[in-house]
Design a protein that fits this description.
The chain has helices at residues 3-16, 22-34, 41-54, 60-72, 79-92, 98-110, 117-127, 136-148, 155-168, 174-186, 193-208, 214-228, 235-247, 284-287, 303-309; strands at 75-76, 298-299. The chain is mainly alpha-helical. Strands 1-2 form a two-stranded parallel sheet. The two termini are 28 Å apart.
C-alpha cells in the first residue's frame, strides 16, 4: 500500500482521537495494525490515553479489536492500562461472540496478560453451548492461548470442547492441529483414546499429502509422546509417532508452538509464520513476529504516570 498515504491517515487519526467514540478508537488501532504500520510512541500514547478514558463505554467488540491490535503491534502495556482493560473484558465476557473470545484470549496471551479466573469463568459459561459456532482457527487459537497461560479448565467445558473438536478435526490446518495438541499438553489434559485415534488419522492424511512442516511434525511428535505416555492401548498413536520421527529426521526436542497470527476483525488471517532455526527448541518469541518485523516490543512504561494521575488527556 502507499506508505505516505498511511502515514498521513494515521497522523490525522491521532489528531482526532480526543473526539473519537470507543468503536472508532478500536478501529483506528485495528487499521494501523492490519496495515503493518509503525505509528510511533506519541501516537500510541495518545491511543492508550484516550482508550483508557473511554474504557467504561467500550463494548465487547471494541475490547477485542483493541486488544488484538495492541498484541499485533507488540506493544508492552503498563499495569495501569492492563487492569482496567481486563476488568472491562470481565464485565462484558458474556456478550463476546466466538471470534471475539478467540481474539481476546489470543491477544492477552501475546501481550503477556494472564486471563483472570473470573474472565475465563464467564467465557466458559457463555461459550459452553456455543463452541460448535467457533471456526476451526478460532478453536485452535483458544487452545493455544489457554495452553500458553497453563489455564485450569472446568471438566464440563473440556468435555464439550473435546466433543466439538472431534467433529472439527478434519477442518483444522496442520498448524491448528499442532496448536491443539500443544495446548492440551500444556494444560495437562489427556484426550480419550478415540479422540487421539481421530487426531492421528487427520494428521496422517496431512503427512501423506506432504502438508506437515518440520515444525508442526516436531511439535506433534513431542506432544503425542507425552499425551500417550507409551500406553499399549494406543499402539496406533505410537506407530504414527514412529512415522513422524522418520519424517522429521528423528530429531525432536522441547517444542513450543505459537500462533503468529490472530483472526482480524474481518475474520482474515494476519501475518506469516516465522521459522525457527533447524533443530533448535521452538520458543514463542521465535515464532511470534510483530507486524513490523521489529525484534523489540514498544515499551510504554511512561504511561504509568499519565494514566495513574489523570486517566485522560492527549499526550
Amino acid at each position: 500500500c502507499n506508505r505516505k498515504l498511511v502515514d498521513a491517515l494515521s497522523m490525522a487519526a491521532g489528531a482526532k482521537m480526543r473526539a473519537m467514540a470507543p468503536l472508532h478508537l478500536a478501529k483506528a488501532a485495528w487499521a494501523v495494525a492490519r496495515l503493518r504500520h509503525a505509528p510511533g510512541r506519541r501516537w500510541l500514547y495518545r491511543l492508550l490515553s484516550e482508550s483508557y478514558r473511554c474504557l467504561p463505554a467500550f463494548e465487547a467488540r471494541d475490547v477485542a479489536m483493541l486488544a488484538w491490535a495492541l498484541a499485533t503491534m507488540r506493544v508492552s502495556l503498563p499495569d495501569a492500562f492492563v487492569k482496567p482493560l481486563v476488568a472491562r473484558a470481565e464485565a462484558l465476557a458474556e456478550e463476546f461472540p466466538p471470534q471475539e473470545v478467540a481474539n481476546t484470549l489470543w491477544a492477552f496471551s501475546r501481550l503477556g496478560v494472564e486471563p483472570s479466573h473470573a474472565l475465563l469463568e464467564h467465557f466458559f459459561e457463555s461459550t459452553d453451548h456455543r463452541l460448535s459456532e467457533f471456526k476451526p482457527m478460532e478453536l485452535s487459537q483458544v487452545l493455544w492461548a489457554l495452553g500458553r497461560s497453563r489455564s485450569q479448565l472446568e471438566r464440563a467445558w473440556v468435555n464439550e470442547l473435546l466433543q466439538v473438536l472431534l467433529v472439527r478435526l478434519p477442518e483444522l490446518s496442520p498448524h491448528g492441529l499442532s496448536s491443539v495438541v500443544w495446548g492440551f499438553v500444556r494444560m495437562g489434559i489427556v484426550p480419550p483414546p478415540a479422540w487421539q485415534y481421530a487426531y492421528v488419522n487427520v494428521c496422517r492424511r496431512h503427512m501423506g499429502a506432504g502438508q506437515l512442516s518440520q515444525r508442526d511434525s516436531r511439535i506433534m511428535l513431542s506432544c503425542l509422546a507425552r499425551v500417550n505416555g507409551g500406553s499399549p492401548m494406543l499402539a496406533k498413536v505410537d506407530a504414527f509417532c514412529v512415522e513422524l520421527a522418520g519424517a522429521s529426521d528423528g530429531g525432536v526436542g522441547e517444542c513450543t508452538v505459537s500462533h503468529a497470527e490472530g483472526a482480524s476483525g474481518t475474520g482474515e488471517r494476519m501475518g506469516a509464520h516465522a521459522k525457527a532455526a533447524n533443530g533448535a527448541a521452538l520458543q514463542p518469541e521465535q515464532l511470534c513476529c510483530d507486524a513490523h518485523g521489529a525484534a523489540t516490543p514498544v515499551p510504554l512504561s511512561g504511561m504509568h504516570a499519565t494514566l495513574g494521575s489523570t486517566g485522560a488527556g492527549a499526550v
